Amino acid sequence: MSNALFNSLVDPEKARGISAGTQPGTRVHPEVLEAMSELGVDLSFVQPQLLTPELASTADLLITMGCGEACPYVPGLKRLDWPLEDPK
Fold this sequence. Notes:
Blueprint: H1 2-9, H2 30-38, H3 53-56, E1 61-64, E2 78-81
Parallel strand pairs: 1-2
């Protein structure tokens, strides 16, 4: 959700967020689709994806949310970890 909101607000010429997970689901949760739709953001086309070292290497900044050792290490990539609890 944060990635979609970020991308809806940022100048796409300056930045773009990519969302991925260490254990991605098979689909975006229906409650997320509904909540984002209420904000005018359509996520019906989004497919969760795996956070791989290759994907992370395309970033200038990697923000992780409590994935610890499961997060890929990319030499030289700045990483910030936001220790958020699992929303489940």
